[in-house]
Each structure stands twice: as structure tokens, then as C-alpha cells.
Amino acid sequence: MRSFVLSFLLLSTAMPVHADDIMQAQALFQRYRQLADAFDPAFADLYCDAARISNTRRFPDGTERTLELSAAQYKDLVRAAMPVARQRGDRSTFSSMAFTREGDAVRISASRYSLLKDYTSPITLKVAACNGNAWGILEEVSESRP
Fold first, then answer.
1. Neighbours of 48 (CB within 10 A)
2. What is the mean pLDDT of each successive set of 10 residues along the chain, which is 146 residues long?
3. CATH topology of domain 2-144
């Protein structure tokens, strides 16, 4: 009985940490969507300084090109692109979100639909504490089309 109680106490104290990480990831993803929908350049600040960004561009002829960017490059690109995206109405919606714990991080997987270009593609974000312990994006892996 004593070992059962100890096991229960250990599990019950461990579970909120896991749930808290998922809640942190969900809150970050909600902020991600809000800033993107508002075309707010502060969107770039969601990325950790050491983030890894990878986008595979898939062309109609079947070829593809993968672009890897540093966080600094991506942040500059995002800040410059926000006014153009707003002007074009370049918005995305997300579906099939899944939040999976990976060590001290959470992997967010989703399907992203481009309203402007009318296609759906996968996106994953790895999020965790960074940049002074605030939660941010450590990695983004996405696909796009011209």
C-alpha cells in the first residue's frame, strides 16, 4: 500500500510538468497564429536566437529545393516580408494540430493551408524555453509551393 501511495504521489507531481509544457506550447502556437494573422513583425521574435529553419520548396515539375536559414536571417526576412504579405493578403490557416513532448521541448505538427496559393502543406515547430527562458521556436520544418 505504501509503495502504491508513493508511486501515485510521484506520478501526480510529474504529470503537471508534462501538461504545463503542452500548455506552454499551445499558448505559443496561439500567439504564433495571432501575430501572423495581424502581419505583426513581432512574429519574428517568437524564434529563438539559435533556431534552425528549413523549408522545402516543391515545384510543379516534381523538383524540390531545400533552403536552410539561421534564426537571424529568418527574423530579418520575416520583418521585411510582413508588409508585402499584408498587401497580398497572404494568410494561412492551420488544422490537424498535434503536440508531442520531445525531452524538454514540444513538437507541434500541423497542416498549413495557404489561402493565397490554395494548397496545404505540413509544418512542424519544435518549441521550448529559450532567449532568457521564455518559450520560443527552436526549429521550423516546412514545405511550400511557388
1. 20
2. 40 50 96 97 96 97 97 96 96 97 96 97 96 88 96
3. Nuclear Transport Factor 2; Chain: A, (3.10.450)
